[in-house]
Description:
Strand content: 15-25%
Strand order of the largest sheet: 10-9-8-13-11-12
Order of helices and strands: EHEEEHEHEHEHHEHHEEHEHEHE
Largest sheet: 6 strands, mixed
Number of strands: 13
Helix content: 40-55%
CATH architecture of the largest domain: 3-Layer(aba) Sandwich
CATH topology of the largest domain: Rossmann fold
Radius of gyration: 19 Å
Shape: globular
Structural class: alpha/beta
Distance between the termini: 42 Å
Amino acid sequence: MSFWILTDACCDLPAEYINRQHFLKVVPMVYNVNDSECLHDPLNTDSDIRTRDFYNQMRSGAMTHTAQINEQVWTEYTEPLLKKGYDVLILAFSSGLSSTAHSASKAAEALSEKYPDRRVVSVDSLCASTGEGLFVHHVIRYRDQGEGHSLEECAQYASEIRHRIIHWFTVEDMVYLKRGGRISAASYIAATMLNIKPVLNVDPKGHLVNRMKVMGRKSSLKALLSMVGKYADHPEEQVFFIGHGDCAEDAAWVAEKLRRDFGVKEIMTGYIGPVIGAHAGPGTLAVFFMDKAGEGRMDAE
């Protein structure tokens, strides 16, 4: 009998992708807009509409924040699968950005004791947004290869590849980074006056790190592409994911450059959902791919 892969809505995988997979479940996540609680569930039929509305509210000045998935929620989604006789592999949002992975680990530990005949394993993805989605995608591919791989083999594979899932992104307005404490108020004012755009990545510990600053939006998009050229492992042979914060035209431009300049054949483009969007803001553009051995994450912060 196969096992289920359970992940969280921070992965930003679209509904059509999720519905094509066997034994994949995505746990919704809570976010708040002006103290009104909302649920990010990629399987909602109007998920994209809700996400566009979320970014429009941010543009209008709405205050947003997010919440982790706690141990109880992980248990609520995992336990029914165990009762039906399935084993479960949990792939959770980076511990460098949230306590969600810690809660998943605690739930897995408790459920393993309660159901000693079942296997529950939790892996910290060290990834976020569609980078987490790309991580999940590769684990699913590995699970389903040939005659299939076991839960233990997939957990080991997940632990080995998580550092190779590379995240590079830029934001349109640095005010959201300022609110989150990633930059100072003085830096925000100076950057806004000079039209400076940050280029960030996720480091080996799963933290968000501001790596460089460039002048203007187009330069920031080109900087993302330069990181592909520097770090991607045979880009023409792998799938790329692009995530955007309601800036589809920029995402399409980057996708075309990936095809033309690097020979990339398989690209999945979709929204960066509210879980990360609440902290990065509208206009965020991110490129996710695999490198050879984790060099693209650079040194830890």
